[in-house]
Structure formats: structure tokens, C-alpha cells
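We emphasize that the prediction below concerns an isolated chain of 369 residues; any contacts that depend on oligomerization or on bound cofactors are therefore not represented. The input was used exactly as deposited, without trimming of termini.
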Amino acid sequence: MGFNCGIVGLPNVGKSTLFNALTQTIAAQAANFPFCTIEPNTGRVAVPDKRLDKLVELVKPKNIVPTQLEFVDIAGLVKGASKGEGLGNQFLANIREVDAIIHVLRCFEDENITHVEGSVDPVRDAEIVETELMIADLESLEKRFDQAQKKARGGDKEAMVNVKVMEPVIAALKSGRPARTAAPAATDKDALKAYRMLQLLTSKPVLYVCNVDEESAADGNKFSEAVFAKAKAENAQAVIISAEIESEVAQLESTAEKQEFLESLGLKETGLAKIIRAGYELLGLQTFFTAGPKEVHAWTFIKGSKAPQCAGIIHSDFERGFIRAETISYADYIALGGEQACKEAGKMRSEGKDYVVQDGDLMNFLFNV
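Result of the prediction step, given as a C-alpha cell string:
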């Protein structure tokens, strides 16, 4: 189980350059003209995790399986996209399919790279894209709202829930706020389910990615500062990267070379690592591991999941016939030097159906189907 992030933004902000660097492919054509991305490009990358590296060192398995992160490079949106301008609704539909939005904003000046709006202003750019998404959401909801109201007046319980959910969302959109600001409370499960079924573009969590020049990669600049202020006001997240640097790093072969290059620029890690960590936090994701001589495997799960749900990520039979989970914390596993030592020290626990899996747990599921 991984997660799926759509890379969006105006044309020429560095989306495809970033996508190419992140996936280390040339699948997306990066060129200095709008709409060079005609179809959404999808790329999967391994999630870097130092804990996985340490487990591999200790266990020395035949096979290593990291968690996967999927990126979808979506063509640049422009004003009027919700009305079909540019490449319009085709791309709004692509955004609807992703779990989270990585909104790339141009935070650098370069007279050789044209800007579709004529000047560099990342906050304005963010608002242009979000406005188009809000317009599309509002049109989608208004078409469904009248029908839901009629059914609700006839006593349809599902329609009543839909009306209750739609009303505050429509009000938010009309006032210029995204749908996520009017989401139902997490405790109202029926309303939350109905809200998710609406598949609204602006209900998705957003990570702002400030694409800066190489000189600003370590500390940012005036443009990225403005984006971080916007993110803070929205209770959202932002990261600073340089797509140019990411592209250079992607071409280096060894980990040592990459690390040396990053350090020479005053950087501790790649932009990919920043995006993954922020994305995990954004979506409430964590990792558990299974480890043995045949394979060390990292699995992504939603924070708060119980043992049977995590077992089901591996195979549906594991969840259906769940008996118990033999569990060792990552810290104990590393400190004591593996499974057998943890057993002998009494650090392997037998957890039942109500156990909430913790980030980094090493799990062995027992089941009977």
C-alpha cells in the first residue's frame, strides 16, 4: 500500500523537471512551452527509509521490498481550465483520481523561462490553480444538490446526509474557500463517508512545493517565504526544493556521490525525501516491516490501523483469518540484534485484534482460513 500524488501547477513551473528527477526517468517531456505534458505520466519510486537499510544490514535477506510512492505528472492548468481553457477538464479529471496534490510553485526568476502570467508570484499562481479547482467543484455540487434535496424531502435517508454535507461545502466554495475547510467531523462517520464519495478536487490535502533556484535551495528566498506564510495560514505544509538540483542528483550513480554533491550545496537530503516525509504526514501514513532470510519488506498503512487491517495489506486471507500478530518494536529489534534475541529477552509480544500498529513495528501475522 502506497499513496498517489498528483503534481500540479501552472505551465513552466518545473513540474515535469521535478517528475523526471523524482522518478529518474525521461517519461515526461520537460520543455519550455505550455502543455508539453499531454497525457498524465505516472512513475513509481521506492520510498527511502533508513530503518529498512538497517534491517537489511542485520537480516541480510535475499530480497528487499521498499514501499512505493506513485507520482502523476499532470499538465499545467491555466485560468479558465474549469471552462475547458487550455487542456481543461481532461486534467481536472486526472486530479480527481489522486490521493493528494503536490502543488509546484515557481519561486525563481529566469528571463530564459517564460511565465504564463508574465511575472513570478507563487501565491498568485497557487490561487489561480485553486480557484479553477473550486469552480469545478462548485459546478459539480450544484448539479447534484437539487436532486439530493428532492430525494431528502421524500424521506431518503442517504439523500438527507448528502444535503447536510453539501450545504456547508457549497457555502465554503462560494466564499472562496476549498472544500476541505468544510469537511465533516471525523466522528460523524456517515457524513464523512458521504463527503468522500463526492470526490471533490479541493477536498484533497495539498503540499506546496517551492521550486527555487540552486542558490536558494538551502534557505529559500522571498518567494518561498510568501508560500510558507500562505501554507501556515491554511494549516497546510510546504517544502523547498530545487528541481534543477534534483535533476542533477538523479544522474549520479552512487549514494556516496549524491551525498557529497548535496553536502557541497549545504543540503542534508534530496527533495524526494522531503516530499515523501511531508506527504506521509499529510496523509497520516506510517510503515511496518516484515523481516526474514527470504525477504525484508516495508509496508505502508494508515495511522491508527489495527493489526487485522495491516495483515490485510499483505493478503486478504491474513485479515479474514487473523488470529494474532507476533510483534517487535523496531528499536528493540535493532538494539538486540534480531528476532531470536528479542524472543529470548521477552521483547516479542503477542497482539490481538484490537492492537493499534505502531510506526516501525516488525510484524508476523498468524492466521487460519
